[in-house]
Design brief:
Length: about 200
């Protein structure tokens, strides 16, 4: 459990949590603020830039602020990638700026880079920015939706300063095939392909 508001700036190329190991447990922010400044732009391989680079389990009740920077795929403000077992995000607010220098398929998301195996987002808000002038194939909440992911009662207010007309989606890429979307809303004026 998070007991207070926290500000964290790890050394460049280092995460807040586990880069090489999966987080598989429960994180309860208890409504506190967590401000991060994560910079993975110089890493030479896919890095899953996020508060939790690789995660499953339950992450809830958190207000997330700051920046996440990468030059690779699968970046998000909360989780980079989740494939091993179920990921649940509950009551998350993020106004993080997710910035990528990747050209072409960046597969970044406002909250999650890539979801999988019955993951779910419920009562979550992304009000930050996805930034990358040459980045394509991103999602407002999830960069790539896989494994019957459920997105319910979520709000996407974020700005998408990317190449939104190149297979990017308001909520999540591939959500029309692998996602279950219910009671979600997107900021009016989104300029790319809208899936909600």
């Amino acid at each position: 459990k998070q007991m207070n508001d926290i500000e964290i700036t790890p050394h460049k190329g280092y995460p807040v949590f586990n880069l090489g190991n999966w987080f598989d447990g429960e994180y309860n922010g208890q409504g506190h603020n967590l401000t991060i400044d994560i910079d993975f732009t110089d890493l030479v391989k896919t890095s899953y830039a996020a508060l939790f680079p690789q995660a499953s389990g339950l992450i809830e009740n958190l207000c997330l602020h700051g920046t996440v920077k990468t030059s690779h795929n699968f970046a998000g403000s909360v989780v980079g990638i989740s494939q091993r077992s179920t990921l649940k995000l509950r009551n998350i607010y993020s106004d993080v700026t997710v910035q990528t220098t990747k050209t072409g398929d960046a597969t970044c998301g406002g909250l999650v880079g890539r979801s999988g195996i019955a993951s779910s987002l419920r009562n979550c808000v992304f009000a930050g920015k996805l930034v990358g002038k040459a980045a394509q194939r991103c999602g407002g909440l999830i960069g790539w939706v896989e494994g019957s992911t459920s997105i319910s009662k979520c709000l996407q207010l974020g700005e998408m300063d990317i190449d939104v007309n190149a297979d990017s989606y308001a909520l999540g890429r591939n959500s029309q095939k692998e996602g279950k979307i219910n009671n979600c809303y997107v900021l009016k004026g989104f300029r790319g392909t809208v899936d909600a």
